[in-house]
Amino acid sequence: MAKQEGPILEIHDLCKNFGGIKAVDELSFEVKQGEILGLLGPNGSGKTTIFNLITGVYEADSGRIKFEEHDITNELSYKIALKGISRTFQATKLFHNQTVTENIAIAMIARTRKKHASQETAQRIDNVLEFTHLGKVKHALASDLTHAQQRRLMVAMALIEEPDLLLLDEITSGMSGEECNEVMEIAKKIRDRGVTIVLIEHNMRVAMTLSDRIIVLNFGKKIADGTPGEISKNETVLEAFLGREE
Amino acid sequence: MVRILDLFKKRTTYFFIAVVILACMLPLYFKSGYSLRLMVTIGFSIITAMCYNIVIGYMGYPSLSQSVFYGVGGYTMALITLRLGVSPWIALIFSPFIAFAVGYLAAIPFLKLRSMFFAIGTLAFTGVVNAVLINAHKITGAEAGLRGIPRLLKSDTAFFYIEIVLIIAILFGTKILVESYWGKILTAIREDEDLAPHLGINTTKYKRLAFALSAAFTGLAGAMFISYQTYISSNYFTIGSSFSILACTVVGGGGSLIGPIIGGLIVVGVPEALRGVLKGLYIWRPSFMGAILVAVILLFPGGIYGGFQKLAGYLRKRGEK
Known about the structure:
The complex is a heterodimer. By secondary structure, chain A is an alpha/beta fold. Chain A folds into two domains: 1-84 and 163-246, P-loop containing nucleotide triphosphate hydrolases (Rossmann fold), CATH 3.40.50; 92-161, no CATH class. Chain A is built from nine helices and ten strands. By secondary structure, chain B is mainly alpha-helical. Chain B has a single domain, classed as ABC transporter involved in vitamin B12 uptake, BtuC. At the A-B interface, helix 2 and helix 3 of A face helix 9 of B.
């Protein structure tokens, strides 16, 4: 069960416009320590933009983002990562010409700022490989992995950094039902380690099963916030996803 | 020394020692002034290509301003020795530091650009610097140049041996860099610069430092080259010179230790060695260089060394079957 303590992440009146389009519109929410929060919404509702604002890819037009009491609004991405926020990407992002182990090693070296081949380092990499079920392919090039393995490698790279907050952007996209189950198991184990997770999901089964709480967005605005059970019965949410019946 | 050699495989180490011994014996066989000068010229091309390799090969940025840093080193040598009457050895110490500073300052705007835009930006930078060198003719001597620059060493043979020492030093230096924390950071930047910051890498800082470090060693080579020539002209540091450095690295194989050495030998050495055979056709040298570059890019994107590696991998797999 998730720890229910104070918020690890606070977002206040966040706004981001692209030209005349309001991608994120005065959005406010909190992420509690140790929970799995699902961010849902139709395409173009601003979910990935929120991840990009949290991790410093985009600059916010207004509003504040606080992580563990520190204001991280418009901080540089690498500083945010070093503060303890790791993420995965909607489109797979890896070092494709490096092996699985090298990918994880680079992520760890970047974090620790040291290149050391100690036994402890190797053990940590092996642990993460085992945790993400990548042990058998550890010497394979990232480009030679299956889609599901590549997605798990992104998680492994994020985990080796020992984050406090993990942002998973459509981690199960393009996966079979069985592969989704495997990722869900991994996500639950990550949460059990005390890592807070925010996930963007299009797969409703995954989002509903995995999330402790769900926030639904539409046109950059929050339209609902509640448990999966509450969200599944929310009229506004159904209307946003399915459209109004005339 | 033993620990440094541990970085390489045993077979590679023996091969490397054999090549160094062979290279050291070359002046005993090629005693004529022309042959020796050719070998020294090839040596300078190899050194410059090796320095450039850090930027294009390991960091993945196709800079076209390497000749500028070669020139900064060269003019530092020329102006300090001629105007201040200082020893060329003291000028040699200053050259890499000034080239580092210029490289770092150039990196600030240009490394905000990527791929083609970075290449165009640095190309324009070379053009601007060359125009400045021509217009500031009272200081630089422009195309007519400055003569009488004192030599670091009297004989061409001594220059050749110092080049071998420098090539070995850069080779080991690059190997240590590649295996270090820095090397992994550069790999991350080359492979996916958008992902790297999300792993906690300050890409801006490391890109600037790598670019300036490459500039510093190129400046050192430029200073040595100008002291060897005893003459400097703005014609040495043109867009064409930057392309030659690029050709050496790309043809040999960027991102590998040996590639720039192979590239220097082929791009500079082969046309010169064939000068007697080609005779009237020698004027086609730039076309020859261009054709080699296009062929290598199309056939072996990893350069000739990359091609060898692929072939070796293929033969190994066939042998296993």
